[in-house]
Amino acid sequence: MSGEKSRPGKPNGKYFGFGERPFLKGAGTRSPEAWFLGTKAENADELEKLIVEAIRDHSFWRRNFHPQDPTHITEQAKRHPSYLHAMDSLKDNLRSLMSFLKKSVPFFSGRYQGHMNWDTSLPSILGYFAAMLYNPNNVAFEGSTSTTILEMIVGDDLCRMLGYTVPEDDDVAKGIVRPWGHITSGGTVANIEAIWSARNLKFYPLSLREALKAEPSLSTARDIEVNTCDGRRAPIATLDAWSLLNLKVDDVLALPARLTEEYGISSDTITKAMSGHSLQHLGMQELCRRCGADVPASPVLFVPATKHYSFPKAAAVLGIGSAHVIDVPVDCDARMSLAALEKMLRDCLEERRPVYTVVAVIGSTEESAVDPLKGVLELRNKLQKEGLSFTVHADAAWGGYFASILRPDEGPRPRDERAGPAPEIGMSGYVTSQFSALGRADSITVDPHKSGYIPYPAGALCYRNSAMRDMVTFKAPYIVHGEAEPNVGIYGLEGSKPGAAVAAVYLSHKVIRPTRSGYGQIHRRALFNCKRFYARLLSMAVPEDRFVIVPVPRLPAEVTGGEVEAELRFIRERIDGRSVDELLSDPEAMALLPEIGPDQNILTYAVNFKHPDGSLNTNLDLANRLNKAIYDRLSLDPGDDIYGYRMIVSTTDLSEEHYGRVFIDDYKRRLGVSSSSGTTVTVLRSTTMEPWILETPEGSMLDVLENELRDAIFKSMMRDSMFQIFEEIDTNRDGVLDVAEVMAKFREKGYADVEIDEFLRLCDIDRSGTVTMDEFLGAFSQFVAKGALTVGR
Ligand SMILES: Cc1ncc(COP(=O)(O)O)c(C=O)c1O
């Protein structure tokens, strides 16, 4: 037993001498109805019982720990006035807190179509709550003797979900690369860590070359050779900086183990010898100063224009400088352009500018676009032959859990009790093909607190090769990572971190396995709903409507140059115009459904209006103003009563500066505003995470969403027409209407002076002699309604 205590923590080993060992494997369960509290808190009784059970269980645990120790909170103490006062205060303040919390965003509702947020899973709430009572801190094993073990198990499960193979310990001992993952506070920290490790990895061979020259403790290894990425083999000591800055990832990561295995140098000795030469120790400036002219141009990292802000942040924090984060323009589908990337990488090759990393986003923040990861990996293979190498990081913070769609269930296949096909779909052919390459990315960010339906804070970073984590630690590396030492906290950016978050991920993965019928089922349903919503957006504006809706995702026929009108008709008639049952029994429609709409389940779209003569507005500023007005109606104002909101969406601005001309020009064209000079398009954004079927026996949520959107569009257009009238009257463009301007315009329209006086009296609320936009908007409709003025007389 004492031997066990000194080497605890093998997730699948013998750490637990009694009871059930936690593990993540097996069939899991199949019912989304049992996985969430529900839009009407339908599972409240179950949640309440299990929360009470967790409290009771925890209390027994406390009481059984040295029962002979004194009790401090006696029954007598509980009757003391100050105790009663404190308890009263707790109750009163809790109630006022609970009342204030009602101003929160109703993520659980089908009417919430905004950000990357939805209900959190019941297992995750219970896992979090149960573990929170123990308050484990996963920074170090001493403070988290149960949840650090869970973190290692969860890390492996995430790796498997994403397509990394977790080998048996024996195979690791034989040198097979083992992946590794851990929980972070979120995607931002995971992305920073990924760039941190990539930066250190880039410079490691250079540091080693310097250490080999200077450190007597490494003298036996002075002739150690390495393969360059273009296939030469040479001693590290003789290689120039360019070659060393372009070694292949696994060749760099193998170096510490090779020093031990081939030259008998212990990992502690390597760590000590390297410390005086490493980037981690010296900082970028000093390392480059020492290497002098040998270090070529400043290295860069490439991200798609749709990148999350965490990458410039990472570059700033890591001393790389955000100027060295280069945006790769996106194509018309908001996916990184491979052609542009290749050109930029070739420029680097020519200039001898090292590249840390190319980031492929798997589910972009604004439009859930999936970058061509497969092509990026192929491009790296090609360029390595010419001497350029880099790590490939997949930012799958949003999209990573969709990998569960492709992961077969474990254990026996349960009997499917459903009568027919289910309202679920898979990912498109293109997206599936990118996911099949995920296991070849060097690192992957994936956020359980996004598509894992788990409470904050729970992000994660997974490395294909566990040795990558040693690049960011100050500790001697474990040569064989199969040892799986329980020291997760030393490999990350954070200090203290909640073990409860890990327990939440663990329990959720245990009950809802990240396989096809578990999380895969949730995402297949969410995709079904999202694509149906896309079909509705394409279909809802009929020719008589004074608006059009243009989703950012193009139709397959637009991409391939096919029959766009025919495809639109098909979508209207066979997808949008059908009940769910009819749709499910139409194989042709079900085959098209995964191929339309966004790559995942975030849909961006913009509304444009038509003039009274039926012609489409061509002014981008006016279209943007309309979309902002719609967003204002469909978003929460701080402090507002949420019960007054009937649908909630989010918004974003897509700019040429970031997205590039190809994307913006194409989208402007589709929106009908290409003749406008503006380069930023305001869009609305709906994230569809709910797995509930939108059609119920009582009615269709899709119809509810359409009606709310229609209402918001109509009211915003009305308001916008008034803006336009105001602007027409405000001839000197000073933002207010003076008497002369009003007189001139209204007389031109044939109004009598008495009518105009009445209008001014009603509008000029503060009696300033001029009418502001707010005064105008407040009074104009009343005035029209009173019949005092007939618009367009
Ligand atoms: C693609 C992507 N990466 C990273 C992040 C950052 O994640 P977090 O907010 O958890 O730090 C986000 C957040 O929206 C994201 O969408």
Alpha-beta classification: alpha/beta
Give the CATH class of the domain at 187-408 and 430-446. Answer: Alpha Beta
Alpha plus pi helix count:
30
Helix content: 40-55%
Task: Report the major sheet.
Answer: 7 strands, mixed
Q: Please state the overall shape, judged from the principal axes of the Cα atoms.
A: globular
Radius of gyration: 31 Å
Strand order of the largest sheet: 2-10-9-8-7-5-6
Percent of residues in beta strands: 5-15%
Bound molecules: pyridoxal-5'-phosphate
Write the CATH architecture name of the domain at 187-408 and 430-446: 3-Layer(aba) Sandwich
Show unreliable segments: 1-14, 479-483, 788-793
**Total strand count, please?**
18
Oligomer: single chain
Q: What is the name of the CATH topology of the domain at 187-408 and 430-446?
A: Aspartate Aminotransferase, domain 2
C-alpha termini separation: 94 Å
Average residue pLDDT:
91
Secondary structure: elements and pairs:
Layout: H1 2-6, H2 44-63, H3 75-79, H4 81-101, E1 112-113, H5 122-132, H6 147-162, H7 169-173, E2 180-184, H8 187-214, E3 225-227, E4 233-235, H9 241-244, H10 249-253, H11 255-263, H12 267-275, H13 279-291, E5 300-304, H14 310-317, E6 325-328, H15 338-351, E7 355-361, H16 373-384, E8 391-396, H17 429-435, E9 443-446, E10 459-463, H18 499-511, H19 519-540, E11 547-551, H20 556-560, H21 564-576, H22 580-584, H23 587-592, E12 602-609, H24 620-633, E13 648-655, H25 656-659, H26 661-671, E14 680-687, E15 695-696, E16 699-700, H27 701-729, E17 736-738, H28 739-748, H29 753-763, E18 770-772, H30 773-785
Parallel strand pairs: 1-13, 5-6, 5-7, 7-8, 8-9
Antiparallel strand pairs: 2-10, 3-4, 9-10, 11-12, 12-14, 13-14, 15-16, 17-18
Helix pairs in contact: 2-5, 5-18, 6-18, 8-13, 8-14, 15-16, 19-21, 24-27, 27-30
The structure holds pyridoxal-5'-phosphate.
Organism: Polyangium spumosum
Cofactor: pyridoxal 5'-phosphate
Domain EF-hand: 751-786
